[in-house]
Amino acid sequence: xxxxxxDMHIDDLPAMRAxxxxxxxxxxxxxxxxxxxxxxxxxxxxxxxGSVAGYIIAFIDDDELHIxxxxxxxxxxxxxxxxxxxxxxxxxARRNRCHYVKLxxxxxxxxxIRLYKVCGFTKLCTVRNYYIDGESAYILTLKVQ
Length: 145
Ligand SMILES: CC(C)(COP(=O)(O)OP(=O)(O)OC[C@H]1O[C@@H](n2cnc3c(N)ncnc32)[C@H](O)[C@@H]1OP(=O)(O)O)[C@@H](O)C(=O)NCCC(=O)NCCS
Fold this sequence. Notes:
It contains 4 helices and 7 strands. By secondary structure, it is α+β, with helices and mostly antiparallel strands. It has one domain: 3-Layer(aba) Sandwich (Aminopeptidase), CATH 3.40.630. A 7-stranded mixed sheet has the order 1-2-3-4-5-7-6, sandwiched between helices. The model has no long low-confidence stretch (mean pLDDT 97). Coenzyme A binds next to strand 4, helix 3 and helix 4.
């Protein structure tokens, strides 16, 4: 399966928003994606046969690269797309001399926690009531070598 990772285009937004709504109980509104694009946050789309199969959004804050959003549409899962997106992000963190890659994940999101673990992340702490529905978040970090 050939998947190309490229910078996100404004035209990707409808497909991304549809994936977002399928993936999350608290999806990002379209404006947040638009804002990420305008602010030149790191926004990459994974493209399969011309269509958006997944995406990652991240930003650099001092010496940390923070993953703000990551999703892969269901038909394209378990094919290494998320691992590939994260791997490229870690390379970018290294090039930008970031010391850490950091993210929050729902405590119940066992699939994502497994993914981050295989990518080398470890748990830093738990933040209670992090999400709007009261669920806790795990803060995971990876030290950039
Ligand atoms: C989490 C998510 C991004 C993973 O995307 P993906 O492209 O399917 O992940 P990959 O194929 O790169 O998986 C890499 C590794 O993660 C682990 N993993 C991924 N999905 C898994 C699953 N359903 N069950 C167990 N392990 C899983 C495996 O170790 C996998 O390696 P393997 O397939 O060689 O065993 C995707 O399931 C998703 O979009 N979920 C909904 C949105 C979400 O939770 N985003 C993260 C928010 S913090």
